[in-house]
Amino acid sequence: MKLTTSILLLTVVLSSCSSAEKSKTIVWNNQTKLPANADGSSHLGLAGPVAGMMGDKLLIAGGANFPGKMPWDGGAKQYATETYIYQLENGVLTFLTQSELKEAIAYPGNCSVGQILYVAGGENESGAVKSVKKFSLKGNTLQEESLPDLPLALTNGSLVFASNKLYFVGGENQQLVSDKIYRLDLSAENMVWEEAFTLAHPVSNAVVVSDKKNKLYIAGGRMRNTDSLSTIYNQLFEVDLPSGSINKITDLPQPTAAGTGIWDDDGHILLFGGDHAETFHRVEALIAQINQTTDASWRNTLIEEKAVLQRQHPGFSSHTWSFNVVQKKWKKQDDIIGESPVTTTALRHQNSVIIPSGEIRAGVRTDQILVGHMKNKEHDEK
Predict the structure, then answer these.
(1) Given pLDDT bands bounded at 50, 70 and 90, which one contains residue 376?
(2) Which of 177, 261, 295, 345 could form a disulfide with 271 if both were Cys (CB 3.0 to 4.6 A apart)?
(3) Residue 289 phi, psi dihedral angles, 5° rounding
């Protein structure tokens, strides 16, 4: 009996060590692109696209870009309606078909659940919207259905799923940055969004993931401030859905906004890229000076300084971080290979991670669709 117990204990110890010595790495492929334009030119790319997996099909739609001049040169942002559907098989994307949304939308919250993609909030030429959509496929034909509206119009928020409920986290409009989490029970006979929780602070552009059961995790994000620099957050919060408690569980490696992330089923949160706001804060400071000066000559000098700063934007972080929610421990993973986008949505399907299009520098989008293959690797941590 003692020998049997010892063998069992040894087996447990060895299994634990073996598990601890393994971590996920992602091998990136940046060769897949959005379809070229009719004239053969490359797609400009899209910031804030509708993006999600419907089974093994990828939908990329809507989004926004600057088809003419850059914004600092007076260019107008254009909101798109085009949709692109791809087949994902063995980690490889194959383009299938293109169509149109009923209306343009960019910067919504996206949430894939099985064969369904839910999309909430976002914005168009008129500003933030409160519409909520349900997308599915009939063959390769996109089906679009309206669901109950959010309580108020919000863009740059996050949408996640847990226990047959959708949760919309944060967001902003011209009047406010939201500190609310709204909930929609998909099993209710008369579905309606309700205010579920109040966050520790208002936030937009956060990375929000769900364990699909009873926990949400909110990483970083930003809050714009009147007449001062935006706050870029460096906290990771855990929302316990049954109790309603919201607690900070750690700091991020760096303050970060507008990055992407996924929940890995082995109890890890993976965070990709993001904006640490070094250039963003310098631009905000110049905008504040421009708004305050009454000297026309000095104002023009500041405007040109801001334009130069934005033209020379160095791009966003390419770092990938893994957080073990049990051990409360960060581990740096291999960097993203290729252009590292923000203001898009990271997607998970089996062992693949997809990060479609997005913004790679101020005003500049990418036609790249990053596809990563997740695999275990040995490392020296015990």
Answers:
(1) confident
(2) 261
(3) -65, -40
- Comparing C-alpha atoms, which of 86, 129, 134, 145 is closest to residue 110? 134
pLDDT (tens digit, 9 = 90+) per residue, 32-91?
Answer: 999 999 899 999 999 999 999 999 999 999 999 999 899 999 999 999 999 999 999 999
Quick check: 332 and 66 in contact, CB under 8 A?
no
Q: Which residue is it, tokens 């898009």?
A: 344
Asked whether the beta carbons of 360 and 315 are under 8 A apart, the reply is: yes
Contact 60, 34 (CB under 8 A): yes
Amino acid at 346: A
320, 156, 209, 200: which is closest to 254 by C-alpha? 320
State the residue for tokens 């996109």: 142
| Residue 320 burial by Cβ neighbours in a 10 Å radius (0-12, 13-18, 19+) | buried
Task: Tell me the backbone φ, ψ of residue 148, rounded to 5 degrees.
Answer: -55, 140
User: Quick one: which of 366, 305, 340 has its CA closest to 60?
Assistant: 366
- 71 DSSP assignment: G
The position carrying tokens 């401030």 is: 225
pLDDT tens for 317-362 read 999 999 999 999 999 999 999 899 999 999 999 999 999 999 999 9
CA diameter of the chain = 89
Residue 212 token pair: 């699909």
Helix or strand run (H / E) with residue 367 = none
- Return the closest-CA partner of residue 349 out of 259, 267, 264: 264
- Please name the residue ranges forming H helices in 68-212: none
The structure's pTM equals 0.91
- Cα radius of gyration (the chain): 22
Question: 47 with 62: CB under 8 angstroms?
Answer: no
Residue 14 CA from chain centroid, whole number? 37
Q: Which residue has the tokens 């007449």?
A: 227
Contacts of 378 (CB under 8 A, 6+ apart): 21, 22
Which of 179, 218, 174 has the alpha carbon at shortest distance from 201?
Answer: 179
